[in-house]
């Protein structure tokens, strides 16, 4: 598995750049939480910084590569992802949440990934019942040390894809 690491301050409202490093300690992507305008940011403060959730992940050249945004309509919650380079859209939805065991699924209409969310262990991305990537955040001295691993057999090799979805669904969450 390819391994990527990054740190994040303990506050979920942090909007600065988060540099993602590969095994050679080279910056491969930069993630940041963004707001469309200042009114949404101020309003989000009253909603515990969990309502207007949007992450932008840029590649190493600083070009926008992946966006993920939280959506809430009629009491239903989901996330939308967009691979900016290929213009491929992804839906990230909770299934079985009414029975108390929510599972996250990610689909572009052709492939379907399952994301098993764990709080203190590895959260695993599954494709055809095989682990293709995993993500883990450990709280160390006022910040989170985060590890992302992507298997060579994963149908998606984009670090921006996995970082964006992980930050939105696992780090900040619902």
From TrEMBL:
InterPro entries: Tubby_C-like
Domain Tubby C-terminal: 4-172
Pfam families according to UniProt: Tubby_C_like (PF23728)
Name this protein carries in UniProt: Tubby C-terminal domain-containing protein
Organism: Lysinibacillus composti
């Amino acid at each position: 598995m390819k391994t990527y690491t990054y740190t994040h301050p303990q506050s979920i409202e942090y909007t600065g750049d988060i540099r993602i490093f590969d095994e050679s300690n080279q910056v491969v992507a930069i993630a940041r939480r963004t707001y469309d305008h200042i009114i949404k940011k101020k309003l989000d403060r009253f909603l515990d910084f969990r309502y207007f959730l949007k992450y932008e992940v840029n590649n190493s050249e600083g070009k926008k590569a992946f966006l993920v945004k939280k959506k809430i309509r009629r009491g239903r919650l989901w996330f939308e992802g967009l691979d900016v380079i290929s213009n491929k859209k992804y839906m990230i939805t909770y299934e079985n949440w009414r029975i108390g065991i929510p599972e996250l699924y990610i689909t572009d209409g052709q492939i379907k990934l399952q994301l098993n969310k764990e709080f203190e262990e590895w959260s695993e991305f599954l494709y055809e019942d095989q682990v293709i990537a995993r993500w883990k955040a450990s709280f160390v001295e006022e910040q989170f040390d985060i590890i992302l691993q992507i298997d060579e057999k994963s149908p998606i090799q984009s670090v921006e894809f996995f970082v964006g979805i992980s930050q939105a669904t696992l780090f900040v969450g619902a």
